[in-house]
Automatic annotation (TrEMBL):
The keyword Signal applies. Coiled coil: none annotated. Keywords: Cell wall biogenesis/degradation, Lyase, Signal. SUPFAM superfamilies: Barwin-like endoglucanases. It comes from the Bacteria. It catalyses: Exolytic cleavage of the (1->4)-beta-glycosidic linkage between N-acetylmuramic acid (MurNAc) and N-acetylglucosamine (GlcNAc) residues in peptidoglycan, from either the reducing or the non-reducing ends of the peptidoglycan chains, with concomitant formation of a 1,6-anhydrobond in the MurNAc residue. It is an enzyme of class 4 (lyase). It holds the Pfam family 3D. Its EC number is 4.2.2.n1. It comes from Chromobacterium aquaticum. Residues 1-20 form the signal peptide. InterPro entries: 3D_dom, MltA, MltA_B, RlpA-like_sf. This is peptidoglycan lytic exotransglycosylase. Residues 115-304 form the Lytic transglycosylase MltA domain.
Amino acid sequence: MLRKWLLLLLVIGLAACSTSSPPGKPGGGPRDTGTPNALPAWGQQELGDTLAALKQSCKAIAKKPGWADVCRQADGISNENAPAVRQFFENRFAAWKVNDGSRDSGLITGYYEPLLSGSRMRSARTPWPVYGIPADFYSVDVPQAARGKSSLMARRSGPNRLTLSPTGDIEVRPADFPADARGTRLKGRLDGKRLLPYYTRAEINQGKGVANAPILAWVEDPVELFFLQVQGSGRIQLDDGSFVHIGYAEQNGYGYQSIGKWLVDKGELTMSNASMQGIKDWLARNPQRQQELFAVNPSYVFFKTLPGDNGGPVGALGVPLTGGYSIAVDPRYIPLGAPVYLVTTWPHSSQPLARLVHAQDTGSAIKGAVRADFFWGYGTEAGMYAGRMKQQGNLWMLLPKGMNPSQAL
């Protein structure tokens, strides 16, 4: 997943996440609102780029029930044939209004793929390492039925992986791990024959655990490196002008804590200026407190090198994201791969932003039915928009006609 851990622009995190009931429960399900041409500002949409993003989704969903014919037809339409593209979406899809009980609007944030300057070698200019997965890092899946047990046994099943096994020789105690990690995939390090939680961000920054981690590159700016971890993927431009494309590989097992919210709670920033840009400005004024602020968030992301440097990052759906046309959603409510009609406003603005996008990613902070993270793309301008986006918005999922949301999920 993007993850998709993650994952999402998670720095802000100032609005409470939704606690929706899953679809199908009283007060919770999406409402059938008919064909897409009844949606707000639908007639103003240029749909060629969104068809291209749907074709990406089809690489992952074409074999799922109900999607084969739609994907086959999409593949036969030119993105440049505007009338045919519009007719395709209007004839083949029904729109379902997503709601959260009595609420049909929710929080829309943004994320992007950052660009950092770096080198293959450590230097005075590039002293900050970008780590791959450490050799002493292990994760193990703990199913629902095992969550309350005091002790479990596991065995090594591959690089950095354990598998629960009654004949295993490694002890796992779920209570040892952070509360927000219990009952999911536990992540840690071996201490003899026992799995303990992995090191926190503060401990890793002190050098713990990473002496045996591969270093993918060295970068100039620790602030940009922190935000690279928040975003989950990015590009590093090397001394010779070439690029290294990196993406999320693993995460140390601690829940994300918002440094923006911490600054607001401490009275250092107001909610209105606790954007990514506002946080960077605060760090520029308070460089001596940089590590204090970073340590607020114990979560730490390890990366892997991605092939090529031209495509977008790969989201939880397993396909490259498209800048301006991909979103992260909570897949309990919106199926990955589905087109989603988003109606919100541009960051720090009342100017309408209505667009047909695609659910291609997830994120640890993206919880609830009417909740999305909008992928702005790559580079400085995308980062500016992503860092400022914290809007209210509405969502309609588009499903092939004849398919209802319970069948899609």
